[in-house]
Structures are given as C-alpha cells and as structure tokens.
C-alpha cells in the first residue's frame, strides 16, 4: 500500500476505514509525512489527508478556511464518510461539528464543569467508582479489561456527571463500543446503529425530565441555559449530551487499555510506575501522544487556499490526522519510542485550536487514578495477547477485547465500610 502514491498528482487511493489500511498504517503515515504531507484519496467522495504536525495544526487553528460544520439536511457541504462512515452518524455530535461563533456559545456553557478545579473535585468520586469496579473482579483473578474494568469505570464517571442512572452506564458504554468494534461492512452494523438510535431516544427523555425538574448535572446545565437570549432547543441539548457520552466513555477507556497493554509488554516501566505513581502524569502525556485515542477529525475547505504548497478548493474535504502528527520526527525526537520523560510533549491527542477536547483534564484524571489503582491492586496482571483484538476502523484507536489474569486480591470498599462502622 505504501508504494501506490503518485508524486505528481498526490493521488493516494486509500480507504482509511479499511482493515487493510491499518495493517500498515504506521509505515503508511511515515511515508506520507516524508514524501507527500498533503495527499489525496478518491475514496468516500474524495478527500485530502494532512499528515505532518505542521499541516494538521495549520488547518486545525484556522476555522475560517477549514470548517468543522457538519451538514445534516444537504444544504451545505459536509464530510460524512471521511471522519466516520455515514452509517455510523445518526446525529450531529454537538458543538464539535459547529464553527465559531456558534461553537463558542455552547462551549463556554460547559467550560467551568471541565476546568482543572472542577476535575480536582471529582477525583474522590472517580476513585470511589474505580474501587467499586475493581472489587467486582479482584477476587476472581481474571477479567476482560475492556468490558469488566475500563468501560464500566469511564461509563460510570460520565453517567454520574450527566445525571443518568448508574445502571444505564454500561448500556451506553457497550453500545458505543459495539458500534466501533463492528466493521462498517458487517451485517451487524445496522443493529449497532439501531442501538445508538435507542440511546438518543433515552437522552431525549432525560432532557424532558430535566425541563420539568433540573438537577446538578451536565444535562441540566444545558437545559437551563440560554443562547442568544433563548433556551437551547431539545435536539441541540441531545446532540451535545451525545458528544459528552462519546468523548467520556470510549476514548478515555481506550487510552487506559492501550497503556495497560504497553505496560504488560514492558514490565520494567510497569514496576517503575507502580513504585513511583507520581510519574503517571508524565506517562499519561506520552501514552496520549503515542496511541492517540482519536486518530483524526475532518474539515471542509471554505475557500480556495494553499497548504504546504498544495492548492485546495472550496468544498473539498480534509482529514486532520492527529495520530500521524503525533509521530512526526520534526516535532518529537525518536517518535516511535515511548519516553515518559519526554519534555516538552506538545502532542495533539486532544486536538488543536478552539475545538481542543473539553474533557482533556477529566481524561487525564481518570487515567492516573485507574492505571494507578490497577498497578497497586493487580501488580502482576498479564494480558492475553492472543485474545486481544483492535477495532477494525480506527478513528477511535481502540481494542475490542483484552482479557487478563492476575493474582486474586481482596475487596476494599467493603473493608472501608466495615472500618467506618466499627
């Protein structure tokens, strides 16, 4: 695949949604960064791939030339099929698919809830949830880290803040996981999308309930807010709640999972982090860079312009390859080496520009707590590599399953409860 690029036309007929592409994706991206940082594919209606750190950052910071707007009714250019196949996008995902100033009106409503100070207040609750989830599996000596540990924890934290009953958390987590873990051409894709439609119906019901009785949660914050002097319509609240589900459930859990797998493969680093948990913060940044849970987002060119000497036309679509930019040797020394002491580490795993991920601080906190607790309570965990499988389509760089075994331990929440009542 890496040899099929025309250096003159820059044509590179690649389907980035295919499993074939991902069999050699690191090598392919490296070749593109070196030989053709702005390449064109005729797949999915045609699009440009930006693969170097500088080309991706240039487009991400320029909302005037590169629009994030996703068209729903066919009245404006959109980019369905470039970020994700159209079949997987039953609704717009909130403010992330809007441009300033409209984007900014919704973003600023939620900024305080995701600030470093707000996340710091959540740390005890994240630890409580992590302890409870690990208690369920700790005595067994084995678990499936995707659906038994990482998924339940990130789902519970997200549902907690959305104000959705905890017993619904895994339904949201499993639905999003199933959608991403099934090939776009699989017969099961339609059923997975139907499950997402059901969840959207549940979110609409949650919005209706908050209209009647607001609570202290993210949905209520949107329901009770005004934009341009008017309440936010229900469908816009649902879109943004759906965005918070997407960002909070699967991407954070996949960061945790890839990191745990890497530490299994590198026991010396695992032991180092177990003995020095204060180093988890730096490790988180390097794992974010190296694994890039979100590999790309798309934009639409708003007017004729140039990037890296290549002419782009209004209406054309571009793919901003965050994951490729994070492996650009022009910005990261030895980019294929994991170095948790890397400094500076200005990765773009959370995006660049005004659309930079609002949940970045919350994701970091969950990583530090969850990975730290697993290293403390399951220090000898061993991943079954033969049963570990990646997503077939990796806009979300995820794992379908990752079984592990470990020396059984003791529950801790029960011990704490009994000690408190003694």
UniProtKB/TrEMBL annotation:
Entry-linked PROSITE patterns: CYTOCHROME_P450 (PS00086)
Keyword annotations: Heme, Iron, Metal-binding, Monooxygenase, Oxidoreductase
Pfam families referenced in this protein's UniProt entry, alphabetically: p450
Presence of the UniProt keyword Nuclease in the record: no
Signal sequence extent: none
Family from the record: Belongs to the cytochrome P450 family.
PANTHER family in the cross-refs: P450, PUTATIVE (EUROFUNG)-RELATED
This protein's name: Cytochrome P450
UniProt source species: Pseudonocardia ailaonensis
Classification lineage: Bacteria, Bacillati, Actinomycetota, Actinomycetes, Pseudonocardiales
């Amino acid at each position: 695949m890496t040899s099929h690029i025309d250096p003159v036309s820059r044509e590179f007929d690649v389907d980035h949604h295919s499993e074939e592409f991902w069999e050699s994706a690191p090598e392919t991206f490296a070749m593109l960064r070196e030989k053709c940082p702005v390449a064109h594919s005729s797949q999915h209606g045609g699009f440009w791939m930006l693969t170097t750190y500088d080309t991706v950052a240039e487009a991400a910071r320029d909302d005037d030339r590169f629009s994030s707007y996703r068209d729903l009714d066919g009245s404006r250019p959109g980019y369905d099929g470039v970020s994700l196949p159209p079949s997987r996008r039953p609704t717009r995902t909130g403010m992330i698919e809007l441009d300033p100033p409209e984007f900014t009106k919704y973003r600023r409503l939620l900024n305080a809830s995701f600030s470093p100070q707000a996340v710091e207040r959540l740390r005890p609750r994240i630890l409580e949830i992590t302890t409870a989830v690990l208690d369920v599996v700790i005595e067994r000596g084995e678990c499936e880290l995707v659906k038994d540990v990482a998924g339940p924890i990130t789902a519970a934290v997200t549902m907690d803040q959305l104000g959705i009953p905890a017993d619904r958390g895994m339904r949201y987590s499993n639905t999003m996981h199933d959608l991403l873990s099934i090939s776009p051409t699989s017969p099961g894709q339609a059923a997975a999308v139907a499950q997402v439609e059901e969840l959207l119906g549940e979110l609409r019901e949650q919005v209706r309930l908050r209209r009647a009785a607001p609570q202290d949660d993210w949905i209520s914050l949107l329901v009770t807010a005004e934009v341009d002097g008017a309440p936010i319509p229900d469908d816009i609240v649902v879109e943004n709640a759906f965005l918070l589900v997407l960002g909070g459930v699967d991407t954070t859990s996949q960061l945790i999972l890839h990191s745990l797998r890497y530490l299994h493969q590198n026991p010396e680093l695992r032991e180092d982090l177990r003995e020095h948990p204060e180093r988890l913060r730096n490790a988180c940044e390097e794992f974010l860079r190296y694994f890039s849970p979100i590999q790309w987002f798309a934009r639409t060119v708003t007017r004729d312009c140039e990037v890296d000497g290549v002419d782009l036309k209004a209406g054309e679509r571009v793919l901003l390859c965050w994951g490729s930019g994070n492996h650009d040797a022009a910005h990261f020394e030895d980019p294929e080496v994991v170095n948790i002491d890397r400094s500076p580490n200005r990765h773009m795993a959370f995006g660049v520009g005004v659309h930079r991920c609002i949940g970045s601080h919350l994701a970091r906190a969950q990583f530090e707590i969850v990975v730290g607790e697993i290293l403390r309570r399951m220090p000898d965990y061993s991943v079954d590599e033969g049963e570990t499988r990646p997503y077939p389509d990796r806009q979300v760089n995820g794992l379908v399953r990752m079984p592990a075994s470990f020396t059984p331990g003791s529950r801790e929440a029960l011990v704490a409860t009994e000690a408190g009542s003694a």
